[in-house]
Exocyst complex component
Amino acid sequence: MNLKAKRRNVTENGDTSEDLVLATAISNGEDLGPIVRLAFEMGRPESLLHQLKMVMKKKEVEIEELCKTHYEEFILAVDELRGVLVDAEELKGELSSDNFKMQEVGAALLAKVEELLEAYSVKGNVSEAIRSSKSCVQVLELCTKINGHISKGQFYPALKAIDLIETNYLQNIPVRTLKMAIERRIPVIKMHIEKKVNSQVNEWLVHVRSSAKNIGQTTIGHTASSRQRDEEILERQRKAEEQNLSGHEDFVYSLDVEEIDDDCVLNFDLTPIYRAYHIHKCLRIPEQFREYYYNNRMLQLNSDLQGSSSQPFVESYQSYFAQIAGHFIVEDRVLRTAGGLLVADQLETMWDSAVGKMVSVLNGQFSHMDSATHLLLVKDYVALLGATLQQYGYEARPLFEALDNSQGKYHALLLKECREQIAGILSNDTYEQMVMKKDSDYENNVLSFYLQTSDIMPAFPYVAPFSAMVPDACRTVRSFIKSSVDYLSYSTHTNSYQTVRKYLDKLLIDVLNESLLSTIQSGSIGVSQAMQIAANIAFLEKGCDFFVRHAGQLCGIPSRTMERPQASLTAKVVLRTSRDAAYLALLNFVNSKIDEFMALTDNINWTVEEMPQGGNDYINEVVIYLDTVLSTAQQILPSDALYKVGIGAFEHISNTIVSSFLSDSIKRFNVNAVMGINNDLKVLETFADERFHSTGLSAVYQEESFRGCLIEARQLINLLLSSQPENFMNPVIRQKNYSALDYKKVATICEKFKDSADSIFGSLSNRNNKQNARKKSMDMLKKRLKDFN
């Protein structure tokens, strides 16, 4: 025994540090994995195994020592345990006996307890059955109410009942079959309600679309009435200002404003759509209904925007635009009152689509229109449409811009129509002075266009200095101004007056003036027609001031602004030029007719043998014709035109006389022929003086009279009949008596002048000393002119 202890002791003393580490780790229950891994990594697993065996042996020794130490205590415990076992057996027997006795005593009581428990179980089952029955009855009553509501179309109470079932009853229904049946039926009922509501919505969509045109027409009609009231008020204000323009009174305006509630005027019911949207909210699918509503309204709008192909646009445009207006009036009400059914972005998208389509339709239709009246009617209605929808917050500027872009097309058509009207007026005009038999005619044809020459009302019948084409043309121009202002009103133009003036100038210059010039230059008119046209142009020129004032009044421009010099039309200057062209044409006609009468080379015997006692035959016709022309001109033309006609005619007569002497067909002439022309010239001079004074021109034009226009012919005749024609070469005498004569003309004419009658006895006749002296003087003049040339 001591040997073993000694050996064990030696072994323990021989433990290495590694064995102690390993033993400590095992005692502490630490993980030996790192130690095992390290041993294998170092290639020493045998050493580790040996250490483990040493530790194992050490523990075995400790166990043996522990058992040896407590051996006696263990023996005592076993003995005590055996004693306890005996006591337990005795106790078990006593318990078994007591149990048997108790069972015998409690058997009857146990039977009663079992009966009581069964009764309690039945009671609980009955109570549960009653509770379940009540719950089922409540659910079934709600189902009955739901069926009643649905049959009456009362979908909202039905949905509230369904929601009550789902919230309070569905999860607590005790009968599984009933619960499953209700769970299956609830979605079906909701779908049925949704279909019924959508069916009502579809009926409402059809109804509101059919009512949209009436809604649009009614609202546009209110806008038109309001616009008319505003125009009437502005017109009264303008007249009041004009009537009191010269005074210093203060103006007080009272405006009668009539408030119109569109919601009261426009009777369309949105209740179905409100109800449907609310029901969809209850169904928890409002987004679905919003999309459904928006898509269907967009489809309706796109269909409306296509228009009708069965009718021309000019017949259907009011229905077309009224339908669109009604659509957006309804949508505005929906946006404001339907609680989010339609959002602003959706309505804006809808409006942008509609505006783009309407602008495209307008541009296409305007490009194909050939009537200014049709274009104006469409423009007015579209302007009313834009103004109406602007009241509801819609941006209508693209519509007004489309109308502004078509103003060139409109005025081109308007000018074309006016050109046709003026052409008809000119072709139907008799070019005779207009006779007015009563004051209403004078009012309509003279005063209406400020064409009167006096502020005093004339006696009737009144013969106007112009023909019927003047008031007819003025009416055409006035109508043009009204149509132009109507088109430019209520547009984006801030200064429509300047635009109206531009097109008014274009009408007067390119249409009226060109038509007048074409008539003048056509060669199909005579003297009286040319004279009347010239007079008409003068009054048309006067009418330009009225046209400017009328355009300004319609555009709302103050009268004092239009009275400024820069306010006049360019056409006024152009018409003045055309008037001069008419005067020239008139003068050409007069001169041409005079030439027919004064064919001197044919009507005069230039070598007559006897001295004439009076004038030639043609001169009477010339005087009669001139008297007729000047008398008519005095009645029709203004004094300056009358003066121009007279001056031109007498100048032409003078030039004709001089040209006759220069004509190559006249080889020679004698003093008798000159004396005959002298007699003719005296008649003309007498007539010229008489007409110059009788027409009152002598008081205005004192520098040159009608007689003065005959100066060249008179000086030539005086020279040929002078006793000393050689004085022509005297500068002083020539400047005094022959200033209008040209050297070369005088030289040519004098070469043809033979101061004797052309007869076979002419050379044998006796001449007195005076004739010889004149002949010598003429020969001297011829010689000196030849030397001079």
